[in-house]
Amino acid sequence: MDFLNVQGIHHTYFTKNSATTALTDVSIAVEEGEFVSFLGPSGCGKTTLLSIIAGLLQPTEGTVILEGKKVEKTGQSIGYMLQQDYLFPWKTIEENILLGLKISNQLDSTKKAYALTLLEQMGLKGVESQFPKQLSGGMRQRVALVRTLTTEPKLLMLDEPFSALDYQTKLKLEDLVSNTLKSFKKTAILVTHDIGEAIAMSDRVFLFSASPGKLHKTFIIPKELREETPFKARSHEAYSRIFQTVWKELESLEPANKH
Question: Which of 1, 54, 213, 241 ranks highest by number of CB atoms within 10 Å?
Answer without folding.
Answer: 213
